[in-house]
C-alpha cells in the first residue's frame, strides 16, 4: 500500500515510444484554417491543398495511426447508391437489403405494358391458418330491407368483426362502369404499391415524411392582432401538410382507363404465375389446390420474405369524381323500368347511408364526402393495409366484377389491443396517434394471433357484400383485376361507439369527420316528432315506429342523449362563473367549428374571446384559449341545460316534454307552410273539386302531396295552440 506503480513506455510498429496505451492519447492539435465555400473550391481546386500544410497532413495521419482497432486497409464504403441518407426513424429500423427488380412498368410508348421477371415460389408459401368469418344467404324477402337484415345478423356476426353476405340469385344489378364511354375513355389516377415492403418499408417512409414536415415547421409567436388575421390560414396550412403526409402512402402511378388497367393486371398475373418454361399455370393443376389459396400463400411470402421487388398498381376514385358509382342512380342512363328496383334499393350503396334508420346524414351536410361511396380498382396483390373506419362506423363493400378479394378482420372488442400491439412493434407510433386508424404496414395474421388477437378470413366474390362492424380492424388484397365499392353508415346500434370515439379523438387532438352532437340532437328531435305524430295524428307509419323503438327509458337513443347531456352539464358547472353567455342561433350550423386545442366539435357549446374572434375552444380547454382575463371570455351554447334535460324526458315518454319540444320544432314548419300556401296560383282552392281538376294536368300528384302535407301540418299547429294554455 502506498507503493507507486511505474508506467512503462509502449512502442508502436515503427519502434516509437508511446506514453499511453493506444486509443488514450489526446488528439494532436490542428490549426484552424479559413473555410471556403463550394463556389471558391470549384473555381480554384488547388486552394484546398494550399490551406493544409504537409505537417498538418502528417499529424492527422499520425493521430489515426495511434488507433490500432481501426483497420484502414479493410474499410470499403461500397456502392454509394446502396446507402441513402436515412432519417431518425429509419436509423432505428434499418432498411432491408436491395432486392432485384421483379417488375418493370411501362415503356417509352405506353403506360399499360408490364414486364415481370419475378416468378412465384409455391415451395415457400406462407399461407396463414385462419378460421373463416360467417357467410349469410338472405332470402328475397329478407333482402328487401338492408338495415333490418344487418340488425338481424349482428348478434351472430359482430364477434368476428367481418362477415360475407351473398344476395339471392335474383339480385343482378347493372354496372354503369361497363358502359363503353366509362370503360374506354374515363381515366383515373393509380398508386404504385411495393408489396415486398408493405410489412415495414412504407411505415418508415410515412413516418419519415411526417417527421421531416414537423421538423421544418418553425413556430412563430403571434400577437393577438396577427392571430386574429391569420388564424384561418395557419389552420388550413397545417391541415394541408398533414393531409399530404397522411395520404401519400404509395407513389403515384400512371393514369389509366378501366380497359387499359385490366390489360395491365391480366398481363402481370399471367407472367407472374408461369413456370420456368413460361407456360401459364392452369388453376386446376394436378395438385387440385384452389387458386385463391395459392395466391394468398404467395402474397404473404412476398410480404414476409420477398426475394424480388414486386410492384403493383391500384386505383381509388373518391366521391366518384372520375368514374362515378357502379350502381344505378336516379339521373343515370340505366334508370329504366327494369332497373328501377336497383335505383331505390337499400343495398344500393348510394342509398344506404341516407336510409330511414341511418343516422349519418344528421351529423354531416348532404355534400359531405363520407356519404358518398368510394370506388376501388385492384389487380393481383393490390392491398389495403390494416385500417379502421372513421368514427368506428359500419362499412359495406360490394364487388361489381372481377377476381376475388381476400379479407381479414379483427373483432371490434380487440381494437385497443390491436393498437397496443402495433405500438409495441413500431414504438414511433406512440407519438403519431393519427396514423393508428389507417396504417401503411401489412402485419401478418399469424403475427397478430401470436399476440393473442383473433383474425378471421373471408373471400369476396363478384356480386357479394362484405360487412365491417364498428371498431373492427380489417385488411384486404385482390387476387386479380376487380372493381369494388364501399360506403360507411351508422344505424342505431352504432350509437354506443360514437361518443366514446369522439372523446378518444379529442384526447389525441384528431379531427372529426362528422359532428356527433349535431347527429345526436337532430336524431332526438326526429324521434320526438315521431312520438308526437303517433300520439296526436295516430300516424303509425313504419318510419315513426322505427324512431319510437329507440325511445323509452331503456331506448338506445335515449341512453346516448342522456349520457351526453350529463357530460355537458358537468362541464358547464365549472364555467358557471363566466359573466357573459350567449345563445347560439338554433339553425346556425352552416360551418363546422372545432376546438383550436383538441379539434373537438363545437356544435353544442364553446368558449370564445374578443381578442380572437375566429378562434374557439371546447369547454375542457377554455383556459387555454388566450391570456385574457376570465371576465373577458364568453360561453356560447345552443341549448340551455334545462332544455336538454327536457329533451331526455321527452325521449323517455313524458307527454308534457314531448309537447314542449314538438311545439318548438313543428311551428317553424308552419310558418314556411304559409309561404307555400301563398304560392298557390290564383283560383286554386284546397278542396276536392280543385284537386280533381288539377289532377288532369302534369304534376298533379306533386300538388296533391303538397296540399295533403299542408293540411296535416296545420292540424298539428292547431292542436298545439289549443293545448298552449295548459
TrEMBL record:
Keywords recorded for this protein, A-Z: Nucleus
Pfam families: JmjC (PF02373), JmjN (PF02375), zf-C5HC2 (PF02928)
Residue ranges of domain JmjC in the record: 341-506
Residue segments, region Disordered: 684-708
Location(s) in or outside the cell: Nucleus
InterPro entries in alphabetical order: JmjC_dom, JmjN, Znf_C5HC2
Domain JmjN: 133-174
Name recorded for this polypeptide: Lysine-specific demethylase JMJ16
